Amino acid sequence: MSPLGKYYVGAGIASVVFMLLPIPWLVTWLLILGVLGAPAVAYFMLDESQRQRLRRIRRRGIGR
Asked: Which of 8, 2, 14, 1 is nearest to 40 (CA)?
């Protein structure tokens, strides 16, 4: 499984766990958005050269 796939599985498990907790639904959805949105925000905070380097590293790992 690719490293990115592991993140997707972990985010899915975290969302299910948050939904099962007896807390208000608004808080649950905010937690889910935080778990899923944090990596996207972190990616967009990178400089363009850092994003290119990250894409190169990901492409190299595909053939393994």
From this structure: 8
Burial 22-50 (b: 16+ CB within 10 A, else e): eeeeeebeebbeebeeeeeeeeeeeeeee
Residue-wise pLDDT tens digits, 35-62:
788 888 888 899 999 989 988 887 766 6
- The domain segmentation of the chain, as residue ranges, is 3-62
DSSP-H helix ranges across the chain: 3-20, 25-44, 48-62
